[in-house]
Automatic annotation (TrEMBL):
Sequence positions that bind Mg(2+): 180, 182, 408
Protein name: Eyes absent homolog
PANTHER family for this protein: EYES ABSENT, EYES ABSENT HOMOLOG 3
Cellular localization per UniProt: Cytoplasm; Nucleus
InterPro entries with a match to the protein in the record: EYA, EYA_dom, EYA_dom_metazoan, EYA_dom_sf
Enzymatic reactions: O-phospho-L-tyrosyl-[protein] + H2O = L-tyrosyl-[protein] + phosphate
Organism, scientific name: Menidia menidia (Atlantic silverside)
Pfam family, any one: Hydrolase
């Protein structure tokens, strides 16, 4: 009350103001004596903080409260930096998981030493992508990253050499398609016999000429690069059938022409099996040839022209185009189904042909099917028949897989039925190998088109 008396006393406003200041000074002196300088500082802070602030009822929204919205998923793969930020492009090492205020305003994630960009991800300094292009590229990379992540979970490493037949049912394949080659995927044998020209109304002479030229190329490739002269009389069902006799010797400087494989001395080593077909040395040299055959196939399966002379390469291109024309794009139509199967994650194409293994490999290369059929998925039924080949495939991939047989002849259909019928004769193999194998017959273009439609609709 004494404060208001001084403020309202005689002297008006100025006297009141001076009185207020005097009282304040006395109060400060009193508090300083009582509390000391530190408590006086706290008093001023208390007085200032007690003043009401505008919008004081609103809480501050920091990014730490919403860090989950800034945390990138584990599959995030950073794209390259745009060239607009020269400093960031010069020393970028990766992206952090949480954006900062500066990065958010610039539209770029800040660099972090903990992560590093994948090789080749950064854009050249002179290239600047539009915003839409950057978003598309980011989406593409993210999808690739996710696909890689999924593949790591479900992918199974391929079996070691010589162990294909022991592959158990843990392989993550759900459906195996067993393909015939001639007159199913490619048109070759019927070109030579004239049956294709007669069936589809083509000129017999020109069709036969195309078949003969392709046959010449097939055997030239097989003889020159695939050891067919050495292997014709010791044909195998599968390229890994003699891998157990291979000692792993380096073949980079090995002379196949001078090792005496077909010579009168055979192996030339001492022992009971020396110089005898089927002996230890002879089998080792045979295994060397099949191992080299596999290496050549894997090296040139996407570029068979590298094995041919320029003249033969031009001839191959011409024959491919002319055969495709005269057969009304038969191979291209079949290739659609092959590629669709290949694009599925848990399906596989396997080739079972009555052609000998080496000429079959040459056909696959010359018809451009090397990327569709790994050499481990090529079986020759010349010696044991398709029924036994199917049994070997079932032994390799297991009984929990669905097998679909695709072919043009009765041998494939009969083999499929023999493996399908649990009450068939003993010729069909042991009961453990009998399996459900539906058969899809290919005899016309319409059959190939229907097959592709069935695959697209997931009927197969």
């Amino acid at each position: 009350m004494w404060f208001w008396r001084i403020l309202r006393g005689p002297g008006g406003f100025w006297r009141g103001t001076l009185g207020f200041l005097k009282v304040l000074e006395v109060s400060v002196w009193f508090w300083r004596v009582l509390c000391g300088p530190k408590r006086l500082q706290a008093l001023w802070v208390l007085i200032l903080c007690s003043v009401p602030q505008e919008f004081g009822s609103y809480s501050s929204l920091g990014q730490t409260q919403f860090s989950q919205y800034y945390t990138l998923p584990p599959s995030y793969t950073p794209a390259g930096l745009p060239a607009a930020d020269q400093h960031a492009a010069a020393a970028v090492g990766g992206y952090s998981a949480v954006k900062s205020e500066e990065a958010a305003s610039a539209g770029l994630p800040p660099p972090s030493p903990a992560e590093s960009l994948p090789a080749g991800a950064a854009l050249p300094s002179a290239v600047t992508l539009p915003a839409a292009a950057r978003e598309d590229e980011l989406g593409r990379r993210n999808s690739v990253g996710k696909a890689k992540g999924k593949a790591k979970k479900s992918d199974s490493s391929p079996p070691a050499d010589g162990d294909l037949e022991n592959l158990n049912a843990s392989v993550p394949f759900q459906r195996i398609f067993l393909w015939d080659l001639d007159e199913t995927i490619i048109i070759f044998h019927s070109l030579l016999t004239g049956s294709y020209a007669q069936k589809f109304g083509k000129d017999p002479a020109s069709v036969l000429n195309l078949g003969l030229q392709m046959e010449e190329l097939i055997f030239e490739l097989a003889d020159t690069h695939l050891f067919f002269n050495d292997l014709e009389e010791c044909d195998q069902v599968h390229v890994e059938d003699v891998a157990s006799d291979d000692n792993g010797q380096d073949l980079s400087s090995y002379n196949f022409l001078a090792d005496g494989f077909n010579g009168p001395g055979g192996g030339g080593a001492s022992g009971a099996g020396a110089g005898v077909q089927g002996g230890v040395e002879w089998m080792r040299k045979l295994a060397f040839r099949y191992r080299r055959l596999k290496e050549i196939y894997n090296s040139y399966k996407g570029n068979v022209g590298g094995l041919l002379s320029p003249v033969k390469r031009e001839l191959l291109l011409r024959l491919q185009a002319e055969i495709e024309s005269v057969t009304d794009a038969w191979l291209s139509t079949a290739l659609k189904s092959l590629l669709l199967i290949q694009s599925r994650g848990k399906c596989m194409n396997v080739l079972v042909t009555t052609t000998q293994l080496v000429p079959a490999v040459a056909k696959v290369l010359l018809y451009g099917l090397g990327d569709v059929f790994p050499i481990e998925n090529i079986y020759s039924a010349t010696k044991i028949g398709k029924e036994s080949c199917f049994e070997r495939v079932v032994s390799r991939f297991g009984k929990k897989v669905t097998y679909v047989v695709i072919g043009d002849g009765r041998d494939e259909e009969f083999a499929a039925k023999q493996n399908q019928n649990p009450n068939c004769s003993a010729k069909a193999g042991p009961p453990s190998l009998q399996h459900n194998m539906p058969f899809w017959r290919i005899s016309t273009h319409g059959d190939l088109v229907s097959l592709h439609q069935a695959l697209e609709l997931d009927f197969l």
